[in-house]
Amino acid sequence: MSAKLLSDAVPATGQTPSLKVGYVVNTYPRPSQTFIRREIRAVEAQGVKVCRFAMRRDPEPLRSDLDKAEQDATTYILDAGAGRLVRALLRAVLRHPDALRTAIRAGRAGGPGRGVLRQLIYLAEGAVLADRANAAGLQHLHAHFGTNSTDVVRYCRLLGGPGYSFTVHGPEEFDAPTALLLKQKVSESEFAVSVSAFGRSQMSRWTPFACWNRLRVVHCGIDPAHFPDPGPLPAGPGPGQPLRLVCIGRFAEQKGQMLLIEAMARATENAHLTLLGDGPLGPELRAAIAAHGLSGRVDLPGWADEAGVREALNAAHVMIMPSFAEGLPVALMEAMAAGRPAIATLIAGIPELMVDGRTGWLVPAGDVGALTDAIDAAASTSPDRLRQMGLSGRERALARHDINVEAAKLARLFRSSQQD
């Protein structure tokens, strides 16, 4: 194990690895998926040997040394090359012709972007994964996201690989459950994880009642060691000192940042916003900021690594998350663990974590008036009250999302899957 990986590890339990599991992600590692890296390290600390697999590398350069070390530890299926993929596919379907029929049926049901050709590619990836998993003696595979990574582990199982489980995050899986074949994936899995009770309820909509016992809740976790006593709030808010807001996330429609710009323009109290991130909506956001004359009140510093995120949280009074669709945002739980109250929308798993009026403000998604009112309310709140709200949020986040506790749940599920 490299020193870089050791620096991100949770304390080991002293257990000798008795179970070998493969983690499968489509693109890994990515700056927005530090929660997966954290989970893997914590599962390993539970005495489980984890082999990392991904279909491809992130095309964007990695900035974090931890991500670079994780990339070095990952096996990339597409690195096998087209020739090996085709040969593995031909061998697999000769031995397991039912898998080819399953892929063709999936392609016919999948719709745009998930047609027969795409399913055959996933089948070929599953064939290579089966070869690698069996050669490594893996007993179980776990995929993150119920999209194509779970297609691959499903095909891998049909081609003689180990059984599988998967974690559903949302909202993508809930937008197209039929095209993604969630019913079939759950029915053929050892178990399926949701990151919130809301997510489990959505999975229950698409899963036969007889399979509901396979649906489990395991939260994304944060490492308490990375969140010591929170730093003091910046000066203010008050006369001459604006409320300092930070919004962390990819610039995309579902994150609601365009609505946040409008709310900032409407707010009557003094407030300053830092939008930390980047993405396809970046040009429109910059144009909207200029159109509303907010260039002096809204900063866009770009992407940040984990240290940069912590620095941005320490410089803020309040985290703000105006999302239209989410699963259970890791950025929100990290902000709460850092002792910052939050303004967030009443969607998905967010109300399971936040308590309106105690850890921050919850507002209806898409309601620019309510979002504006929450900004003004936060700007009018005394520093002492903001500090109390932040400490309440910290207590709740650390109690519900300790990565050591959540990884122990997963390790038990992995082990129990071998006993059935």
UniProtKB/TrEMBL annotation:
Statement: the UniProt record of this protein carries the keyword Glycosyltransferase: yes
Keyword terms, alphabetized: Glycosyltransferase, Transferase
Organism in which the protein naturally occurs: Paracoccus rhizosphaerae
E.C. numbers: 2.4.-.-
Protein name: Glycosyltransferase
Leader sequence residues: none
InterPro entries: Glycosyltransferase_grp1
Superkingdom as given in the UniProt entry: Bacteria
A GO MF term: glycosyltransferase activity
Keyword Methyltransferase: no
